[in-house]
Give the backbone structure.
Amino acid sequence: MGHITDALLHLHGPVIYGVVAALVFAEAALFFGFVFPGETAIVIAGVLASQHRVSLPILLVVIVLAAVVGDSVGYEIGRKFGDRLLDTRPLRKHRDRLGTAQDLLRRRGAFAVFIGRFTALLRAIMPALAGSARMPYGRFLVFNALGGITWGVGFTIGGYLAGTAFEQVAQWAGRVLAVVVAVIVVIGVGVWLYRRHKKEAEETETTPEPVSVPDLREDLREHHHDD
């Protein structure tokens, strides 16, 4: 998953729309949500929008449409293949969670489609379960659209705000770092000057005063005068 995340962060321009839409669509339509949660893709897309690599309004429309259409495809797959789909090897590993999802669908009906939108595994399988249970498509579509709008807009805006906040924090941190470096330099220079002054003072105290040597010529003249 880390490789996909890194690849998304390095995308630019219209390619972002296509890749994010494909990941969101494939989450339920192709059960790709078992491998890569769709909210990760849209949060990253929101961050990219905060960096002005894509338009936020267009991104929101693309994500919501991809979510609704992808779930509709998942619904049709479940309606057509039914229990045979649940018996496939990839889904056998998640029998317990599938049982929980089916129980939620029985208790909550179409509202379970909305709730399932906010859990990675349920988001991947709930449309197929709704189709397998022969839920009327009109009812499914209403709650699917409500969930897609709430989920898509919420996580994308969250990524956008996080990206904006990160840039502001980075700018603030840059200014603080510059001030800290300046203070460290000033303190360092002050310590160096203090130590230099202290060393010079110590050298001055320990240096002996020069001893005057008698002038031998003056002594000789005095001695000659006495004679």
User: Anything to note?
Assistant: The chain has one domain: 2-165. Residues 169-178 have pLDDT under 50 and may be disordered. Residues 29 and 74 are 4 Å apart (CA to CA). The radius of gyration is 38 Å.
